[in-house]
User: Which sequence fits this backbone?
């Protein structure tokens, strides 16, 4: 089963993705985590992505599709994956659909975590004090929200037109939201 998690930064995709991946026994493909590892290890990919990520802008679709293609080719991903933080643009939606079609798969479900900007700002400020992510500073957060609104939000309509989107109001406790995800997925 291939499930795609969408939502603004700080919506809880990462937290809920870990729980869902654990329940389904399939890996999570989180491009943000893979990019952060590349930056930490100063790989050529990391060196290319670092400044863009810290500014709060989106890394190029070409880089992202390269990462996703590599991940999907791994044996561990053969039974499906949870996509977390990818897809973020329409070219990525098309690219992921094409990659999956090439291996006889498709996105089976899109889950959208719906949360207000006000809630997001509070959560990201809290995360900054805990994780110290450079892109959680207020200026970068503003740019990430703009990138989300301008480039990622239109992707929802793309999926609405192709099979639909399950919307979950992502407010309340982690357990409460996980319960709603479980009900939506059926597991
Ligand atoms: P995240 O942890 O998913 O919020 O990602 C952190 C940062 O990595 C983003 O603000 C982008 O700069 C970059 N990034 C992660 N995934 C993508 C993606 N699918 N497309 C473009 N940029 C991405």
Assistant:
């Amino acid at each position: 089963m291939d499930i795609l998690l969408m939502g603004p930064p700080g919506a809880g995709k990462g937290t809920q993705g870990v729980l869902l991946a654990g329940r389904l026994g399939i890996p999570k493909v989180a491009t943000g985590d893979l990019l952060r590892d590349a930056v930490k290890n100063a790989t050529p990919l990391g060196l290319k992505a670092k400044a863009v990520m810290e500014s709060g802008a989106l890394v190029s679709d070409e880089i992202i599709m390269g990462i996703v293609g590599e991940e999907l080719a791994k044996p561990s991903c053969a039974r499906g994956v949870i996509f977390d933080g990818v897809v973020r643009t329409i070219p990525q939606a098309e690219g992921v659909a094409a990659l999956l079609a090439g291996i006889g798969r498709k996105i089976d479900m899109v889950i959208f975590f719906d949360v207000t900007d006000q809630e997001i700002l509070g959560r990201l400020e809290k995360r900054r004090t805990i994780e110290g992510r450079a892109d959680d500073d207020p200026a970068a957060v503003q740019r990430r929200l703009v990138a989300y609104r301008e480039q990622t939000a239109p992707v929802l309509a793309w999926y609405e037109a192709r099979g639909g989107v399950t919307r979950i109001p992502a407010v309340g406790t982690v357990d409460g939201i996980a319960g709603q995800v479980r009900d939506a997925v059926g597991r």
The mean pLDDT is 95.
